[in-house]
Write a structure and sequence with these properties.
The complex is a heterodimer of chains A (117) and B (116). In chain A, 0% of the residues lie in helices and 54% in strands. With 117 residues, chain A is mainly beta. Chain B contains no helices and 12 strands. The chains are: A mainly beta (117), B mainly beta (116).
Chain lengths: 117, 116
């Protein structure tokens, strides 16, 4: 079974702090994704990565950055946390590359609920 | 451009009765369509997906969905609800122009409540 793990289930930070959210997958997947989930808005893509050191912006990248130094690990960074970044953050991974990525299943971690005070 | 609309934010059914969760999509290219389920405090799990093969797709736990191009719909059904089906369900579309990277677009979710 594919396993996607996230470093924390719950996190509380203060405004202005630098926040790191870590995600690790154990199935040698090429692609990794960070989403945020808010009530009534579904999931929105923040960033994704299709290879080590490669990244692309999603729909809402402002205020976030990412790092992928190793294939299995994808980090989301909030440079200066703000209260409007209070949310559930979900990491996902998928295997296929090229055109087939359109049809591929994404495997999700359990999520990190971040509260910024 | 692509989008997906889940027509009901909340659906309540009695245990043993049918389930219908409605989803409409729009896309400029031939879409792939997915239904994911999220149980409380858990990540999302794939229920089923349509990728241009058979239009009636069977998934896990007795769920199925039918792709109807003329109606741009991909409704999720189950003949008989079980208490364990209570969760949030997301309809997802992925459609791309050849040679570009794909991106999933999620609906806003439908919360399914199952009562005794």
């Amino acid at each position: 079974d594919v396993k996607v793990t996230q470093s924390s289930r719950y996190l509380v930070k203060r405004t202005g702090e630098k926040v790191f959210l870590e995600c690790v997958q154990d199935m040698d997947h090429e692609n990794m994704f960070w989403y945020r989930q808010d009530p009534g808005l579904g999931l929105r893509l923040i960033y994704f990565s299709y290879d080590v050191k490669m990244k692309e912006k999603g729909d809402i990248p402002e205020g976030y950055s990412v790092s992928r130094e190793k294939k299995e690990r994808f980090s989301l960074i909030l440079e200066s946390a703000s209260t409007n970044q209070t949310s559930m953050y979900l990491c996902a991974s998928s295997l296929l590359v090229g055109l087939a990525v359109n049809t591929d299943t994404q495997y999700f971690g359990p999520g990190t609920r971040l509260t910024v005070l | 451009a692509q989008s997906v609309t889940q027509l009901d934010s909340h659906v309540s059914v009695s245990e043993g009765t049918p389930v219908l969760l409605r989803c409409n999509y729009s896309s400029s290219y031939s879409p792939s369509l997915f239904w994911y389920v999220q149980h409380p405090n858990k990540g999302l799990q794939l229920l089923l997906k349509y990728t241009s093969a058979a239009t009636l797709v069977k998934g896990i736990n007795g769920f199925e969905a039918e792709f109807k191009k003329s109606e741009t719909s991909f409704h999720l059904t189950k003949p008989s609800a079980h208490m364990s089906d209570a969760a949030e369900y997301f309809c997802v579309v992925s459609a791309q122009r050849a040679g570009t990277a794909s991106k999933l677009t999620f609906g806003t979710g439908t919360r399914l409540q199952v009562t005794l």
